[in-house]
Amino acid sequence: MSKLRVGMVGTGFMGRVHSNAYRHITSIFKPAIEPVLQAVCARDAEHTTEFARAWGYEHVETDWRRLIARDDIDAIDICVPNHLHKDIALAAARAGKAVLCEKPLATSFADAEAMCTAVEAAGVANTVWFNYRRMPAVTLAQRMVAEGRLGRIYHYRASFLQDWTIAADIPQGGKALWRLDANEAGSGVLGDLLAHCIDTALWINGPISQVSGMTETFVKERTHTSTGTKQPVSIDDACTFMCRFGNGSLGVFESSRYARGHKANYTFEINGAEGSLRWSLEDLHRLDYMNHGDAADVRGWRSIHVSDHGGKHPYMDHWWVPGLQIGYEHSFIHHAADFLAALAEGKPCAPTFRDALGTQRICEAVLASAAEGRWLNLA
Amino acid sequence: MSKLRVGMVGTGFMGRVHSNAYRHITSIFKPAIEPVLQAVCARDAEHTTEFARAWGYEHVETDWRRLIARDDIDAIDICVPNHLHKDIALAAARAGKAVLCEKPLATSFADAEAMCTAVEAAGVANTVWFNYRRMPAVTLAQRMVAEGRLGRIYHYRASFLQDWTIAADIPQGGKALWRLDANEAGSGVLGDLLAHCIDTALWINGPISQVSGMTETFVKERTHTSTGTKQPVSIDDACTFMCRFGNGSLGVFESSRYARGHKANYTFEINGAEGSLRWSLEDLHRLDYMNHGDAADVRGWRSIHVSDHGGKHPYMDHWWVPGLQIGYEHSFIHHAADFLAALAEGKPCAPTFRDALGTQRICEAVLASAAEGRWLNLA
Amino acid sequence: MSKLRVGMVGTGFMGRVHSNAYRHITSIFKPAIEPVLQAVCARDAEHTTEFARAWGYEHVETDWRRLIARDDIDAIDICVPNHLHKDIALAAARAGKAVLCEKPLATSFADAEAMCTAVEAAGVANTVWFNYRRMPAVTLAQRMVAEGRLGRIYHYRASFLQDWTIAADIPQGGKALWRLDANEAGSGVLGDLLAHCIDTALWINGPISQVSGMTETFVKERTHTSTGTKQPVSIDDACTFMCRFGNGSLGVFESSRYARGHKANYTFEINGAEGSLRWSLEDLHRLDYMNHGDAADVRGWRSIHVSDHGGKHPYMDHWWVPGLQIGYEHSFIHHAADFLAALAEGKPCAPTFRDALGTQRICEAVLASAAEGRWLNLA
Amino acid sequence: MSKLRVGMVGTGFMGRVHSNAYRHITSIFKPAIEPVLQAVCARDAEHTTEFARAWGYEHVETDWRRLIARDDIDAIDICVPNHLHKDIALAAARAGKAVLCEKPLATSFADAEAMCTAVEAAGVANTVWFNYRRMPAVTLAQRMVAEGRLGRIYHYRASFLQDWTIAADIPQGGKALWRLDANEAGSGVLGDLLAHCIDTALWINGPISQVSGMTETFVKERTHTSTGTKQPVSIDDACTFMCRFGNGSLGVFESSRYARGHKANYTFEINGAEGSLRWSLEDLHRLDYMNHGDAADVRGWRSIHVSDHGGKHPYMDHWWVPGLQIGYEHSFIHHAADFLAALAEGKPCAPTFRDALGTQRICEAVLASAAEGRWLNLA
Question: Are C324 and A327 an interchain contact pair (Cβ–Cβ within 8 Å)?
Answer without folding.
Answer: yes
